[in-house]
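Lesson 9: reading folded outputs for more than one chain in a single document. The general rule is that every protein is listed as its sequence immediately followed by its structure tokens, and records are never interleaved. Here is the first one.
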Amino acid sequence: MPRFESTDHLREYRRQLVAKRDPNQTQVMVCAGPGCLPMGSEEVAAAFREEFEKNGLGAKVLLKECGCHGLCAGAVRVLIRPQEITYQHVTPEDVPEIVEKTLKEGQVVDRLVYEDLHSHEKAVHKGEIPFFKGQMPIVLRKLDVIDPTSMDDYLAMGGYRGLRQALLEMKPDEIIDAVDKSGLRGRGGGGFPTGRKWRICQDELEEPKFIICNADEGDPGAFMDRAVMEGDPHAVLEGMIIGAFAIGASKGYIYVRHEYPLAVRRLQLAIDQAREAGFLGKNILRSGFNFDIQISRGAGAFVCGEETALIHSMEGNIGEPSPRPPYPAQAGLFGKPTVINNVETWANVPEIINMGADWYAGIGTENSKGTKVFSLVGAVNQTGLVEVPMGTTLRQIVYDLGGGIRQDREFKAVQTGGPSGGCIPAQFLDLPVDYDSLQSVGSIMGSGGMIVMDTTSCMVDVARYFINFLYEESCGKCTPCREGLKNLLFILDEIIHGRGTEEQLALMEELCDTMAAASICGLGKSAVNPIRSTIKYFREEYLAHIRDKKCHALVCRPLLKYTIDPETCTGCLACVRECPVGAISGKKKLPQELDQELCVKCGLCYEACQFDAVHIE
């Protein structure tokens, strides 16, 4: 990799890169994203290498282990370019057939292509799959195209063009103006206007100034930032360098949680490559601008996603929030002005500089511009990463992209915004997904987690799950959050065990008001959203638990009652053998009896019965 000393040098190198590449060359893109790696994508890639060597295809076909393809429900995914043939659920055993039929004979392996669950229509090419049709990839557009370890791949797709333009053709004020005009808001949860934050920091006189990428993605079920760091790390670096030039920062940090070792490796490689190429370090592209980046690793504390807690952690202190103001843009890392944005925000910046603020502002809604990346998980048929324009409705995401609810069950709710988000019921399926609309129904955008639930979910149990998560992750610094979560969790446990009262339901609402008003940080203030939203939209479920001692979703074990139907029971004794406490008795080939006093409601008898004789009430 050469060191680029001028714009002309970079432009010529990019021209040569593109000229050397044959657009018609066959490329096999094996997904190595968060969904495919655990399913054996490395083994699939190794099988392709072995088959290429056997068949003498090494010089003709290019193999790449790339980033996330998006449709994680089809892991392991393989995309063959330029034909755009996409295969799913690929195993090493499938590889010889793909090589023989597709790469050598030009035929499609029909059993590996996408098949619609409802119409059973098959789609051979990526663009024909409904999951991809409603998307508008900006942040994710390169993930299934480039090798994330290859800087040449990034440069060939226009990488660092935005940096060149920012450093050599724009003034810092013009960059901030462009980001501000684009309408880009922080994608980490708060949604604060990015350009405004940069301007506040730029106006501060204190030196030095710092740039931080918040990659502490801690929401259950969320993997958006991880996918970008692992699949397109240079986009994050480029955005940070542009931001640093705009505000006058000399040092940048990427704060990555400990659970993302591959992201750390990919980012460190990208940093080393960028430094060698002259995009980091002294006198970048002979512009006189000096800036460098290093990685700071977090221990995985959820609270360190809050920017002041993140700063304390980086300084070697306990990761706990501080009251604001002053804001980090005024006094942040080591007391100096600091801009903190998350991975997705930084990855948007190069495209805004490349394409222009007006282009970006033309996407989305009036107050929520651009696109948003979501990790779509839960009860949908097609889980994965999606990137859609702001204003896309929940129905479009869940049904058009997600393929609807598994086993044709009924949609019940979707939670957006991670543990601190709200649960949105079916009546709002046509709600446009943007910052203001989500807040209007008691939820938040958050970093982009989207968990879909069907009628088998108990909303009291869902609320308890998230409150328990937040209770365990609370830093405990402020009384409203520390004691509020403890008491909310206690009351929810009482309700789930059939000991709750309507007075306690009212007390929970009062506790939520106190926490939202008095907690130090945004995490404590928004921790009440799971309670507020579920009580507001699913109050009847709480009342059923309290008044009737019933969980109609059959989730809350203490409220369940197992019975054996004497008309159906064959006396096979399968339930007797599985019962751990000896609560079931009776003679062979005669109906069995279940002692309710002894039953621990483990459900093993229900699972063991092959004659549907065990019922749950």
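And here is the second record, again sequence then tokens.
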Amino acid sequence: MFKTIVLPVALMGAFAGVQADEGQWQPHQLPQLKAELKRVGIEIPAEKLADLSKHPMSAIVSLGGCSAAFVSNAGLVVTNHHCAYGAVQRNSTPEHNYITDGFLAKTRAAELPGGPNSLVYVTDKVENVSDRVLKGLTAQMSGRERHEAVEKRVKDLIAECETDKMYRCSVPAFHRGLEYYRIRQMMIRDVRLVYAPSDKIGNFGGDIDNYEWPRHTGDYSFLRAYVGKDGRPADPSPDNVPYQSKDFLVVSAEGIRNGDGILLAGYPGRTSRYKLPSEIRYARDSAFPLKVTELQADLAVMADATAGDAAAAVRYASVVKSINNVLKKTQGLLDGFARKDIAAIKDVQDAEFRAWYAKQPNVSPTLLAELDAAIASDMALSDEEFAWSVATNSDLLKSARSLYRYALESKKPDAERESGYQQRDLAFIKARLARLEQSYVNKVDQARFEAGLKRYAALAAKSHPQGLDAVLPAPNAVAALYAKTQLADTAKRLAWLEKDQAAFEQSDDAFVQLAIRLQPVAASLEERRKEIDGNLERVIPQYMQAVIAWKQSQGKPVYPDANSTLRVTYGTVSPYSPRDGLSKGPFTTVEGIVEKVTGKAPFEAPQGLLDAVKEKRYGQFRDPVLGTVPVNFLTSADTTGGNSGSAVMNKRGELIGLNFDSTYESITKDWYFDTAITRAIHLDIRYMLWVMKEVDHADNLLAEMTIKYPKPAKAAKK
């Protein structure tokens, strides 16, 4: 065990030598970054930024996969168009297609239900519980014993936190298991769609422009959070009232310039900055190529299955959009690995670290060998887990498996159930099952399942989980399964939540029976995963503790990998040079939309927008330097998936943009942050306001927000 570190990790956030915009910082670390915040021009005191009860952090919320912010005291939330896409798609039909036509509620009564998967999380408390999670764990424990001990302590901490049912609590790991923080969030579950522009604005450029620059996408939408009349979260009801948000962001139409400093706050999903070279090579040479091939094949199957069927295409629009986004990011990672040998860079760093580690007193002589062995086991099991996911690529089968697993877990006392199947999880299980009402078509699911089975058969035999081949149906037998199930009916699907294990085992429903046959294989994979994760959780924190000490000795920043918790980053508005002789950014303008328009998807634009540009109706949203309305801009902020919808704020904490993407060259930032070319792409809030006023006439929302307009230019003296 490494014992030379004295300071807690939380106190080792920044050092005098730091001069980069890298870092997804926990709010409590910000007081250590005063010099950096001052360098980029941020005027808000760092201590205020660290306080979740104070503006602006109290206005930043999570949507459970995306980020957002309150922009009025009546629960109005602004986020990305693609983050509200599920709610838009849920309410769309071929006759009322809000995806292509857009949607605007002129009154509160006209706002549409976001659906059971639309949630708003307001973080109000974060506390370090590392001692309560880790104290007393011994090196003699098996991996599974250790993992289950940690899981039990985490569940106990969550149960203790959730005595008030208005809160949803979690205990995520930081620094790969070195620290644990308990996070309390108010979970608002009545969320309604207020306004989404046409996808000709919100998704202009589509997948062609995704991760590309220059960009001209109006990626924004508005939701509203509703609560019971007592101010507490409540199930969706016509009697609910808008949530009275304690704080909200002032929207600034004053604009920004090249070189201006910005703050960005949100909930980044996952980064892998502390991965070892072997883990990078596994992703680059094996896992990611397989993933790209699988995603491409699945998209092709859905395209064929929905061809000529407008209703089916609408139902799968959100699924297709999500998979396309993952595909482009994964391909971008592969291209980035090919462009810059990050594994080789990490080799050098790893060698330097291991040489330093060998010279330290009181360290484990076997730690690094144990670490390498645990990672190798993790990779081997990951191959089998991937093969499992290919073979079971059916929403109906996933529903059947989830239902049967819930029945098995329900026999246990609630505290002993597996995470994800406790009583606190029932609403989420119901939401997943109900979601198929808007995103399932029998023929499409059948086509995906059949094709997945064929692709599974072609995978390397060593990646096939033991026992799986014997219980899987043949591709030509899949149609018979769909003919002998009632799980496609939402009411009947949900009714299974009330049934016990015996009812499942007595059922003649084909998918229920398949789920039962698959359960032993799934259980075996899960048990092996617990053993491997427990071993990783034992050795990786020791490794991370040493890495932090090593970085500290070099005066380098220490921040945890992203894990979907609230983080703050900073940067400056700045262009970049992807290759010699080429400079890009930092702004695009509405004239660029006109230049890109072809009249065919994804380069279509509403006629009202084109007319407004032609007539130069720019008003208060004209940038004084550009002479027109800016659409998107670049900054050096450190972002990743989950940061979609994150508030981009100026030096005073006013909303000036929404994060929604990064440049293609930046995708590898999840693994290695290259300050020279890493750029995040943001929606300029002036474009959003301009569209709302000149194109969609969302005057009610413009009046609801507090908007800070630029001061009129003084008339020249005669």
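What the second record shows: Confidence is low (pLDDT under 50) at residues 1-19.
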